[in-house]
Amino acid sequence: MNKTAIVTGASSGIGRAICEELLDMDYEIYGIGRDFSDAGSLLDNSAFHKVELDLLDTPNLENAVREIVKGETLDLLVNCAGVAYYGLADEISSGHISEMVRTNLEIPIRLSSLLLKKLKERQGTILNIASVTANQSNPHGAAYGATKAGLLSFSRSLFDEVRKHGVKVTTILPDMTDTNLYRNADFETSKEENARLLPEDIAEAVRYILESDPHLVITEFTVRPQFHRIEKKRSVSDMI
Ligand SMILES: NC(=O)c1ccc[n+]([C@@H]2O[C@H](COP(=O)([O-])OP(=O)(O)OC[C@H]3O[C@@H](n4cnc5c(N)ncnc54)[C@H](OP(=O)(O)O)[C@@H]3O)[C@@H](O)[C@H]2O)c1
């Protein structure tokens, strides 16, 4: 029997790469996102089921997830969806704060809570995609970093609650990865190969974690590029 996974943030970046890896590992996937126009070959695979919804529409999300798991088994929940807004703490808008806290922290907690019963039945796994920002000071990104630190804290406590049921909980903490996450920032990942991560690097970490010997649990997994470089985005006026 194929294993079944629910993956948020499946429509792009790290989540999409994780879905590709999971399909290669013969998972049946319910991938959640709002806009799958960039999802490429994922949509051609019959084991991938696109679930188009806004995670912040909580009643709709919870109904959809209940429908997905009704009468089905569930082996894996990947909480990958996330948003990032940057700026000094007194400049960031309340709407952006709320979107980050809800998407990056509240929704992973709600989905874990909703799906734990199913995951216990299969001794399944929760993978939470946090960030290296969870473990460091983040000037100009304090609110984003706080949501990721919150997710890390939740994952640690959750593991202590559910380990006796055979459920595994892993937090992955990626450093800067070349995706669209920085669309709202004035900086971006380096173009240099050894100074940035690719979404596929995080997907490989997922495979490593899931294929580890079942008697052990990798509770935290940090992935960094060899070199540390951040590039300031060029504005239109820089280019003229
Ligand atoms: N890129 C990095 O450097 C980096 C580093 C550390 C951690 N991370 C984390 O990795 C995760 C994935 O980000 P990414 O880098 O792959 O960026 P991305 O390409 O922008 O992907 C973000 C994903 O989240 C989904 N999403 C956001 N808000 C949503 C909502 N309200 N409803 C439904 N889906 C929503 C997006 O779906 P739609 O576009 O379809 O709405 C998209 O699939 C995030 O949690 C991020 O914080 C990224």
Report the β-strand fraction as a percent range: 15-25%
* Poorly predicted tracts of residues: none
CATH homologous group name: NAD(P)-binding Rossmann-like Domain
Radius of gyration: 18 Å
Strand order of the largest sheet: 3-2-1-4-5-6-8
How many domains, as an integer? 1
Distance between the termini: 58 Å
Question: Can I get a quick summary?
Answer:
The chain is α/β, with parallel strands linked by helices and about 240 residues long. It is built from six helices and nine strands; from the N terminus they run βαββαβαβαββαββα. α1 crosses α5.
Would you kindly provide a written description of the structure presented here, covering whatever features stand out?
With 240 residues, the protein is of the alpha/beta class. The protein has a single domain, classed as NAD(P)-binding Rossmann-like Domain (Rossmann fold, 3-Layer(aba) Sandwich), CATH 3.40.50.720. Helices cover 37% and strands 18% of the residues. The strands form two sheets. Strands 3-2-1-4-5-6-8 form a seven-stranded parallel β-sheet, with helices on both faces. The protein has a two-stranded antiparallel sheet with strand order 7-9. The longest helix has 28 residues, at 94-121. It is globular, with a radius of gyration of 18 Å. The protein binds NADP nicotinamide-adenine-dinucleotide phosphate. Residues 9, 11-15, 33-35, 54-56, 80-84, 103-104, 129, 131, 174, 176-177, 179-181 line the site of NADP nicotinamide-adenine-dinucleotide phosphate. NADP nicotinamide-adenine-dinucleotide phosphate binds at residues 9, 11-15, 33-35, 54-56, 80-84, 103-104, 129, 131, 174, 176-177, 179-181.
